[in-house]
Structures are given as C-alpha cells and as structure tokens.
Amino acid sequence: MLKRVFDVVVSLLVLVLLFPVFIFVSLLVKFNLGSPIFFRQTRPGLNGKPFQMIKFRSMLDSNDNEGNLLPNKDRLTKFGKFLRSTSLDELPELWNVLRGDMSLVGPRPLLMDYLPLYSADQARRHEVRPGVTGWAQVNGRNAISWDQKFKFDVWYVDNQSLFLDIKILFITAKKVFVREGINASKETTMTRFKGNKE
C-alpha cells in the first residue's frame, strides 16, 4: 500500500514539474517522426496480465518493397537515439504508473511472446508490478545478459522495500544523466530473448 502511494505521489509530482518538457518532446516527435506521437504496445504486467504500455515514439514506420517493417536499426533516427539515450521516451510511462499498470520501480515489462519462454524462477518477475526502472537497469541495463537481468529481477522481487525503491530511483537518475548502459554491445536495442538453453 505504501509503495502504491509513493508511486502515485512521485509520478504526479514529476509529471507536473516536467510538463513543459513533456509538451516540448511531443512537438519534437511530431516534427521529426510525424504521427502518432506515442508508441503503444501490449506488455505483461502484474501476474502476466496484459496492459498497454505507452512511450514516446522513437522510430520511423518505414517499410520495404513488400510492405514489411524495416529492421529497427534502419528505422531508428538520430533523434530517436537521442530520446532513448536520455530516457525521455520513457516519460509517458508515468501515466501507466498512475493507472496502476506499472510501478516506478520493478522488473521492466518485456514482450508478451516471452512469457512461455521463462523458467519457473524467471517467471517470478511478474509477482510484482513492472517498473519504469528496476534493479537490473541500475546494474547494467541492456549491457548485461538476459540471464543476469532475470536474476536481478527476481532478487528485487525477494528484497523489495521502499528504501530500495528510493535507492534505485536515485541511481537511475545518475545513470540517465551520464547515459550509461543504453545499448547492448552497441546494438540498437537489446537482442531478443530466445528462451533458456536445454
């Protein structure tokens, strides 16, 4: 209950303080990438329940000659890379926090099609609400392996506390400022999770 109150109060405060930034980024996205301004995608939330996560759009909707979307690296512009490196694309997720879909701190919500690929232990990351940031993000973000990431996520589930959340938020702010751990091995995005080796 205390965690939820903390999430709502801090999210509202940040949204109010950064409202001019929110509007400015919205205009930049519209100018650089066109419409829609927001990117919405179904992600698994608490207990794996689907919800619509919202972010600022960071890629073009460019297709090949057959009408298929081009690879991420071909659709991500310099402006999009800037949004991601500064984590400004994540700002709209505060709305998900206010709605109760997410928490400020928790395991990052991944793709729905990863759900059947988790081991029983890895699936425990869904015992809490997904977060805007998390223990894995302050311990390497996309620069660590999937196995390491899931171990950090499960560790958080077993050790969560308000003090730990505050600590993670402060570390996150520092890492965003220095743009640390953005991409894995200089890839555009984290490589897809393909399940556990037999």
Describe the structure in brief.
The protein has 198 residues and is mostly helical. 41% of the residues lie in helices and 10% in strands. The strands form two sheets. A two-stranded antiparallel ribbon has the order 1-2.
3D architecture notes:
With 198 residues, the chain is mainly α. 41% of the residues lie in helices and 10% in strands. It is built from seven helices and four strands, in the order H-H-E-E-H-H-H-E-E-H-H. The strands form two sheets. Strands 1-2 form a two-stranded antiparallel ribbon. A two-stranded parallel sheet has the order 3-4. Strand 1 and strand 2 form a beta hairpin. Helix 1 runs antiparallel to helix 5. The longest helix has 17 residues. The radius of gyration is 17 Å and the shape is globular.
* Radius of gyration computed on alpha carbons: 17 Å
Q: Mind summarizing the main beta sheet?
A: 2 strands, antiparallel
Poorly predicted tracts of residues: 183-187
Secondary-structure class: mainly alpha
Structure annotation, total helices: 7
The count of DSSP E runs of length 2 or more, i.e. the number of strands, is 4
Q: What strand line-up does the widest sheet have?
A: 1-2
Share of residues in helices = 40-55%
Features:
7 helices, 198 residues, 41% helix, two-stranded parallel sheet, 4 strands, mainly alpha, two-stranded antiparallel sheet
What topology does this entry show?
Blueprint lengths: L1 H16 L1 H15 L4 E7 L5 E7 L15 H4 L2 H9 L6 H7 L3 E3 L25 E3 L12 H14 L2 H17 L20
Parallel strand pairs: 3-4
Antiparallel strand pairs: 1-2
Helix pairs in contact: 1-5
